[in-house]
Design goal:
Elements: H1 12-34, H2 40-67, H3 80-111, H4 114-119, H5 130-160
Bound molecules: protoporphyrin IX containing FE (2 copies).
Length: 172
């Protein structure tokens, strides 16, 4: 399967990046919710490392489409309105991911606690820092967009049966 996308199928590169980052983001949303109080020191190093990786992969994914690749054409049978809504949600997802990474980096930078996060030691109260408010709020927006997106993908798959999820699959 080619790395680049065709008119009706995502390429192996964007498909791999989609599934890898989708899984990592679901993991980050869950780990963010459960890392409270006594858990924080144990979970935060993984949260930060995974979050930074998602940031790098997302920048690469955006650059990939800007420089090397084109998005497939809209799947057959969708209205102009539906296509516009999908585009809007996809751009919203990309934007929300980048804001999450930037605000996360902002918290680490402002707290000056990178050493404590990875090397052990008392952690500051991140919730007092201004980027925490952005991080918490945008994480809820990201969750809503992701649920809407997954719902739409499942609706295409099971109700419309237009093979949409296969466009993001790996085929020989
Ligand atoms: C897509 C990427 C990310 C997602 C989805 C995500 C998700 C979350 C969520 C849901 C929370 C809990 C917010 C709340 O309690 O209201 C959280 C907290 C936090 N995240 Fe992230 N995060 C991401 C990236 C990052 C990055 C890159 C960093 C650091 C460089 C980071 C550092 C933190 C910190 C320091 C907290 C606060 C922990 C606390 O004291 O409660 N996050 N994150
Ligand atoms: C079970 C979970 C998921 C399924 C089944 C799924 C399915 C899909 C499918 C089929 C497409 C291509 C739509 C088309 O052909 O036009 C797509 C695109 C996309 N998905 Fe997902 N997705 C899932 C989870 C996620 C998550 C968690 C995120 C991010 C938080 C995400 C972000 C995106 C983005 C940004 C695109 C647009 C790709 C582009 O054209 O640049 N997806 N997804």
């Amino acid at each position: 399967m080619p790395l680049k996308s065709s008119v009706d199928h995502y390429g192996a590169m964007p498909a791999a990046l989609h599934w890898l980052t989708a899984l990592a983001i679901l993991f980050l949303l869950v780990s963010g919710q459960i890392m409270d109080g006594p858990n924080l020191g144990a979970i935060l190093p993984m949260h930060v490392a995974l979050g930074l990786s998602v940031g790098a992969l997302t920048l690469f994914r955006i650059a990939w489409f800007v420089v090397f690749d084109r998005h497939p054409k809209p799947v057959a049978g969708v209205s102009g309105m539906q296509h516009l809504l999908a585009r809007f949600v996809h751009i919203g997802l990309y934007a929300a991911i980048l804001v999450m990474v930037a605000s996360g980096m902002g918290m680490v930078a402002l707290s000056g606690a990178a050493q404590q996060i990875f090397g052990g030691g008392a952690l500051p109260d991140f919730t007092l820092l201004p980027p925490f408010g952005v991080h918490g709020l945008v994480s809820k927006l990201l969750l809503v967009l992701a649920l809407f997106h997954i719902g739409a993908a499942l609706w295409h798959h099971f109700v419309v049966r237009d093979g949409l999820i296969g466009r993001m699959g790996f085929r020989g």
